[in-house]
Amino acid sequence: MPQLTAIVTGASEGLGKSFAIELARRNYNLVLISLPGSGLPQLASYLRKNFNIRVDEIETDLTNAESYPGIFNHLGLKSITAHMLINNAGLGNWSWFEDKGTAFYKKQIELNVITPVLLTRLFLEQANTDTTSYILNVGSLGGLFVVPKKQVYGATKSFIRYFTKCLQLELSGSKVRISLLSPGGINTKPELLVMNNRLKGLSKATIMEAEDVARIAIDGLLKGKKEIIPGLMNRFLVVLNGLLPAFAKEAIIRSRLKLILKS
Ligand SMILES: NC(=O)c1ccc[n+]([C@@H]2O[C@H](COP(=O)([O-])OP(=O)(O)OC[C@H]3O[C@@H](n4cnc5c(N)ncnc54)[C@H](OP(=O)(O)O)[C@@H]3O)[C@@H](O)[C@H]2O)c1
């Protein structure tokens, strides 16, 4: 079978880096995208040395409008057709709405909403209609639950949920498979690791390692799963969310809010 090519956004660290390593193990050629100066060339050279794959790295700011056509122009010039797009890059926050400025929210909405929509549009334009193409949109359980201090982040992930579910219907007769990844907390960086280590009980049981999430996500994507929710506890919470009446959910959120306000 000829080697297929996957684009991974936000590949320099966290979940994106785990996606890059997981896909390299599965013999995919890679197009890795991250901000300049984030260590992408080092990751690319590690992957080239350790796996028999082609790796192209593109250092660009995905909130810059010129970055999207720039990526596909690069692929066109190198005669590369991408078969998989992993819309992973995203900007999170854990802060009261008033505590971040307008520039932060603008960047968060651009990276979490505009970037995956426009990359998906351009990816589909170049996709080979004779072979199966795959798109994985990285959402979050935060897009399903109302979580205080994640107001704009959660809203961007709700957008991704709606966008993905709608595209799944629109593309159902085609050779494009599109999956939504809805993870709970992931130990992707030191500050999250510290925060997650402080959790107890049920909340702690929802946390997963990035390598496991990446492996489960790629398995689900290739199987054509519509929504991938890694972790038994996270799947249980989603089922519970569907069963509880609205007033009970609001009471739980209010009690969590009280706890947050006290801490
Ligand atoms: N971590 C969690 O608990 C969790 C839970 C649910 C969902 N998710 C979702 O999973 C995805 C990955 O999260 P993560 O925790 O792995 O994030 P992360 O560790 O912050 O990594 C984000 C990646 O995106 C890149 N990036 C950031 N801004 C960019 C920009 N403007 N242009 C290009 N690349 C940019 C970063 O590059 P630099 O290294 O240069 O900054 C980095 O490679 C996100 O969509 C997030 O919402 C995460």
TrEMBL record:
Pfam family, one: adh_short
One Gene Ontology term, aspect cellular component: membrane
InterPro entries: NAD(P)-bd_dom_sf (IPR036291), Sc_DH/Rdtase_CS (IPR020904), SDR_fam (IPR002347)
Family to which this protein belongs: Belongs to the short-chain dehydrogenases/reductases (SDR) family.
SUPFAM superfamilies assigned: NAD(P)-binding Rossmann-fold domains
Native organism: Mucilaginibacter psychrotolerans
Single GO MF descriptor: oxidoreductase activity
Keywords on record: Oxidoreductase
Name of the protein in its database record: SDR family NAD(P)-dependent oxidoreductase
